[in-house]
Design goal:
The complex is a heterotrimer of chains A (about 350), B (about 300) and C (about 400). With about 350 residues, chain A is mainly alpha-helical. Chain A has 13 helices and no strands. Chain B has 13 helices and no strands. The chains are: A mainly alpha (about 350), B mainly alpha (about 300), C alpha/beta (about 400). Chains in contact: A-B, A-C, B-C. At the A-B interface, helix 5, helix 6, helix 11 and helix 13 of A face helix 4, helix 10, helix 12 and helix 13 of B.
Amino acid sequence: MQGLRWLQTTAYNALAIGLGIIAGLAVVVYAGGHIGVALSSLFLNPITLSGGIQQIFVRFVMFYAMGLGIGIALKAGLWNIGAQGQLLVGMVMVFVVYTFLAFFPWPLLYLAMILGAALGGLLWIAVPTILRVKFGANEIVVTILLNVVALNFAFYMLSGPIKSRGTALGFPLTDILPPRFQIPNIVAGLPITYAVPGTIAIGILLYFMVERTSFRVKANTVGESIETAKYAGISIPRVMTITMLAAGALAGLAGATYIMGYRYELDIGSFSTNYGLVAIIVALVGRKHMLGIGISALFFAYMTIGAESMALAANVPTYVVFAMEGIMMIGILLGNYLSERRFAG
Amino acid sequence: MTIAISDIAIAVLSTTLQLSPFYLFAGMGEIVSEKSGVANMGLEGIMLLSLVTTFIVDFMTGNPWFAMLVALAIALVIGICFAFLAIQVRLDQIALGLSIYLFGLGLSFVIFTTLYPTGLTPNYVGLPPIFGGWGKVPVVGIIFLKQNILAYVSLVAVPLTAYFLNRTSLGLRVRAVGENPKAADNMGVNVNKVRFLATLFGAVMFGISGSYFAGNFVAGFQTDIIAGRGFIVLAMIYFANWRPDRTLFAALAFNVVYALQNEYVTISGFGVASVSTLFNMLPYVFLLVLIPVFGRKARAPKFLLKPYRKG
Amino acid sequence: MPSTERMQLKKRNGITALVGALIVIIIILVGVAAYAFLYPSTGATKTVTSSAAAASAIGKLKIGIILPLTPADNSWNYNAFNAIEKLQSEFNFTLSNAQNKASGTDADPVAKQWAAQGYNIVIFQGGQYQAEANTFAGAYPNIMSVCVDCTVANYSNVYRIWLDLSGGGFVLGAMAGMVSQTHKFGLVGGGDIPSIWQGHEGFIAGVMYTSPATPTITNTFEPFAWADVAGAQTTATNDFTTGADVVFSSGDGVDVGVLGAALAQPASPQVWASNVYTNLTAILPADNKILLGSIVVDYSTPFFKAMLDYVSNNWHYGYTKVDMASGTISVQPGPNLPTGVKKAGLALQSDIVEGLITVSFKGAATGDPYCFDNPKDSTCADTTLTVPSAGGIPTGNMAALFSYLPPVSSLP
């Protein structure tokens, strides 16, 4: 029965995603795009376009890392809506370390940049965590607030403390990271960086730490009912803190992979990508499972790149991809509901 | 540069009154909705769609009232979809809300850019200031009498919402359905219908919010024009413990800080551009700081986010 | 659940799954079939020596331009777009444009799309694209990456067009100094970047040169708000209400805001506003009285030079400067200015074009002007400008450096 249910849910998800794609196609064709070009861009461009494969893996890493964090938090019933803000802070922290700890010797500095990004995300979620654990303040509200603050904070940092001394020309831009600060490719020539196996490794590690241990049950109990958790003697603050902090750190780490593995610089265009929101969809599609989220992340990486390429080819703003994602998410929620309903009785 | 403190104060108060109605409409709508147990996190999506509809219809017809009407119709349609999915189908309200936000974010921008690819639009015909020439009277006029009718309606909406929730029988039912839907059901209240109406009310209010926002913008529709300020309403309600009067206070306080930092940045003519963005954070940090102070006693409606199933 | 129901359920579930998978497969098949509608192949360019051949070679090019805003700004974007469109109608090359790309990250997908479609030249219209223009150039060595207002070229296929507004600013400042009654001046800039800064310094120098009384100068750089019409309008209004009667503005939405502020002022006392690049017929009423003058930038010449260099295979580490001395920047005085002031401005302009007056800035290691990086340096403080009575090299603390200035009394 389990396998059949899984199959049905996947079918529903596929339908939902198909619906979203059709909606996007409709917009593109309405805006004057050629349906053939649209379809070929959507499905084939991520592989055929130069740099497409690199982008697939970059986004896969980001969606997987953030999705893992959101998934862990969701197990405990906590929503990390602040993934976008933590991502931004992570990106900023890479350059904060790069600028202010520049006297570190190179290997240490490199490591510090990555850890600093994770730390940034962790610190950014620390405030909502404390407010939730100590004061019972709803973490959704606080993380949303902090998203907006993070945007302004990142803008401020980009205009001042981490602005490039030499090449920015006064624009809000950072230095460009020289090659020894970039995440290298595994095999020269193939655009897959070490971030990919690194993130997969983290996913597998978390799978064993979360899915296969008692932590999963503890987190689920906290998520389902606080009273039951108290009765069972589970330390609720501990569970909440661990899950939230992990979520924040993972989101910050995603920022490091983006900067050090792809863009090598930070500008305001990276602020409005809304990857943090898409990561929520990724986590939901992955059914909050540490490995399922990986597959979901790969799929969404491919799909978002294809959709953006389709929009570009038809001269439609790439914002149409957001609308597609919104429709997909609703469809996925509906699909989950429908499949659960069949098995309810 | 010498600008009198009184001038600054007048400008700040005037701006506060201009900006607050946006938060007040949305706040009242979300309060009623959440009191009945349904949280609508897609409010910013509805606002964006309402905003873009207002712009476009206004550009085409030159009639701001008709534009608002169309925008409200669209907000209502989305509200119906959301309410149905959240209440009858019982999907997760948070995920649903976020989807609507994404949908509204994407669709609004795409629609606007497709219709006006160069960004060149006809002039926006806004609602006229209701007090006309009185708005030029120094001090009192500039602060209080410059706005259009919606602004004053929003101020009236605050006590009206409080009265509705606390003193009318429908308001009682709304609250009951959010606090103890089982008991309400036993008393014969159609829980889901009341929630449905409350959510629709919220959606319409978000539509008015978005429509009002159109009057505040000179530059026209840009990417991420509302920039998360719709979500801020959720924080305001939380801090205000779901009370309309405290929400008014929260909205005014937030906007005073916002207007203050805006004035300061303009006046001091920052040669160092970066510091002004630091000040941009102030209103949000201000709200954040208030949460542990006032939000401690915040008690959400007991059955907020929990769908109700009969029997 | 009884077994028949279970079987029915299984069947239903199976069918649902099948339908879902089928839909996905169909869409993929259609996509693959539609692959036949791929993009047209690239066009090759030839090395040419004669101009008729050059013209036809340019006609075969595919050129894309990336704009930070839209041509509706009637300023920076309008100017560039207008120029390239004029060239397009003359030479008939393929032209695409991408608008509202606020940063390099936003421009990246479009540039890559064009690269895949075989474009020859991509124009990045703005210094904010500097990093992106270079990264793009590195990834596509056969595409000319034109970077307008950039200082860094890491690859030989980066072609830089640098903007120097100081001459234009200086002429406007000189006219402003002559025409102002209150001797108070405001400047509003769209961002603290070297090219805008140079224009401001030129204006300040011009004011100090001709102002009969010690001028009061307020220099505001809007924080990256080229599109911020409202903010610029507020700042300019502030300037006007605190006594300034001339406001200089440089760029984009800032121009629109400042001109709007000037138009909103009462007719008397007379105020003035200037602008850069702007399409004035779209902004000002026909009988406008407030225009001090406009700095007009001719982008057609540098764009054409870039194209010519490309088809002549002469484009490695290409660089061209847009400034008053080369004739690509000029000042158009406002219609309402007193005739004497107009004549003086134009006289100074022709001095600059003829090379009698040169405006320069001390250089810095980064490529920025020295005083842009070190505004507090004693040699950079804009406090005095003294011109010897017979003309000659001015003295005093000045960020802008002049080779020669005629005595003010000699100006028409």
